[in-house]
Every structure is written in structure tokens, then in C-alpha cells.
Amino acid sequence: MRRPGPDYPGPVPNSEQNPGATPAPGDDTVDPRHHRRPLSYVRRTARLTAGQQKAWDTRRQRYLVDVPHEHRELSVHPDWRFDAAAEFGRSAPLVLEIGTGQGECIVHAAATHPERDHLAVEVYRPGVAQTIVRAGHAGAEPSVAGGNPGHELDNLRIMQVDAAELLGHGLPEASLDELWVFFPDPWPKTRHHKRRLVTPAFAELAARAIRPGGRWRLATDWAEYGEVMLAVADAAEGFRNAHGPGGRAPRFEGRVMTSFERKGLDAGRSVTDLEYVRL
Ligand SMILES: C[S@@+](CC[C@H](N)C(=O)[O-])C[C@H]1O[C@@H](n2cnc3c(N)ncnc32)[C@H](O)[C@@H]1O
């Protein structure tokens, strides 16, 4: 299976950050149950680093939500629902980030906002493992506001699933206070645009999952995709652009600089931030 492509010179897929990555066998372009929904990611296997493997072996049970699958590895079984109160042992505002990559943003958010609960959703196992590594460091970092020296982050959970399925039926309706989609794969080739995460159908899933008054935040360093995101979300029923129709948001202060964003900026690209309020 082809990667997003050599015509996208900036932030690269995790597989290219980790040369051990290889595509998993089988057709990974479409969801076999929903034949017309192209997948926004490439299924691939990859070796973990020694540190990631150790975190995976010893600490994944603390963070990883055991999601039952139905028809394929990263699917969410239609009968399963995430119960945040049971999982976190309390009722608190819930923030979900899709495509957390190496976990920089969501781990920082969990460490600095102990009053909220946080869900990281990522399909790529080395990213999930690196997020577990990072969570241990953040929990042990006394200088991080809300840090819990010598402990792990109690307000973070990770799911290795396809986020579209999670939003569509794995989460209860109106259960999210915030949904973050930062630097989704741009799929720059025209023939791959159908694989982009942010589409009108995805906006419907987002509207289902976010509570009235909640926020949907997006960011991209791919200008043309930013225009598409803006058009899609401005047109989506159930959302209001927090900065007026066609408006861009200032940089969200909760969005920390990731390696993906750094590479984009270094390549001369600028970032589009968007913010929507669920009606
Ligand atoms: C370009 S990376 C950006 C990572 C991170 N947000 C950052 O800024 O560093 C996009 C990430 O989204 C993940 N991804 C793509 N489709 C996904 C899906 N349907 N569900 C969950 N994660 C997905 C990819 O595996 C990849 O790690």
C-alpha cells in the first residue's frame, strides 16, 4: 500500500519515522463492513523501541482501554459503549484527541488539567506505546502544573481504534466536552482525498459525540486541507464557527508544539486553527 505520497514533503507518516514499519497484509483502503468508507490510515505493523516495548509490557493495562472489535482489528464492536465514569471513577469533563501521534498534546493536557479526563485515540501502535512512555514522564515531573510526582496520570486513557467508529457508536451521544483533530494526515494526492478524516460524514459523527456547548478544535499545516476543513465544518449542521463564518481561530493555547507541526513550520508552511461550538 502506498504511503500518503512523495508529493507531501512535510510531516511524514509514523512509518517513515520508524523504518521498521511495514504495511500489514490485506486491503487497507476500505472498511470491509462499510464498503464505501475509505480508511483514513494505512494499516501497518512496526517494531517498538526498547523503551516503548517496556512501557507496552509493563504499563499498558493502566492506560489502554480494552475495546472489543467486530470485523477487523481496529474496529469498535457495535454493542460496546465507553463508560467514562466507570473508567475514570468519577464524572468530569471529557476531552478526546484523534490521531494523537506520539502523545505530546494529550499528555500535556492531562498533566496540566487534572480536573478533566482525557482520551487519546491512535491507530498506530508505536504512537500508543510512546504516549504511555510520555505519560509516565509527565506524571513524574514535579514542574508540570498538576503533575503527580512519582505517579502516573490518572486522567488519561488510550484507545487503539479507528476514531470514526468510536465517534459513530463507541461513545455515548453528547459525551465529549471537546474533540481535537490536530494535523490529521493530509492525503495530498487528489486520488487519496477520499481518505481524509475530515469530511461531511465525519462532521456528523463529531456532532453526535460532542455535547451542546462543547468544542470541536482542528488544526492543519496543509493549506488546501485547511480550506476543506473550514468549508466542511462551517456547513455542518449542529456547529457554529466560534470566530464567525469563514473565520480562523487563533492558535489554541492548549495545543503544544509537536514534531509534526515543527516539521511543517520548518518547511515554511503555516498552520490553520479552527474552533467550532456544538449547538
Ligand atoms: C499526521 S499525524 C499527526 C499526529 C499528531 N496529531 C501530531 O500533531 O503530532 C496523524 C495521526 O493520525 C492517526 N490516524 C489516522 N487516522 C486515524 C483514525 N481513523 N483513528 C485514529 N487515529 C488515526 C495516524 O496514525 C497518525 O498518527
From TrEMBL:
Its EC number is 2.1.1.33. It comes from the Bacteria. The keyword tRNA processing applies. Pathway: tRNA modification; N(7)-methylguanine-tRNA biosynthesis. The keyword Methyltransferase applies. Substrate binds at K189, D221, T258, S259, F260, E261. S-adenosyl-L-methionine binds at E97, E122, D162, D185. Keywords: Methyltransferase, S-adenosyl-L-methionine, Transferase, tRNA processing. It catalyses: guanosine(46) in tRNA + S-adenosyl-L-methionine = N(7)-methylguanosine(46) in tRNA + S-adenosyl-L-homocysteine. Residues 1-42 are annotated as: Disordered. Catalyzes the formation of N(7)-methylguanine at position 46 (m7G46) in tRNA. This is tRNA (guanine-N(7)-)-methyltransferase. It comes from Isoptericola chiayiensis. The gene is trmB.
